[in-house]
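Suppose a colleague, Dr. K., hands you the sequence of a protein chain of 83 amino acids and asks what its three-dimensional shape might be. Before reaching for any lab equipment, you can write down a predicted structure in token form. Begin with the sequence itself:
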Amino acid sequence: MDIQKLKAIRTGQKRGAVTKILRKMKDGCDDARLEELMETVTNKREILKQLDKQILEALNDGDIGTESEDADEYQSQIERTSQ
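The predicted structure, expressed as tokens, is then:
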């Protein structure tokens, strides 16, 4: 798959799904709903990890550092927010 398409899919996952879920978690909810949201975040993180891996495999050597840093920062942000 082309890098731009992978990045577009990843952006949709980040901005759409994950951000909305994290916002719902911050707003508060009952324990059952919170557990469901946590499971969804975990699944989305795995999707993002796979997309990041595919993007890194397709990149030129010069672009890998920046892309890797961006991916790591977003994963850290998800981790901090979901705790």
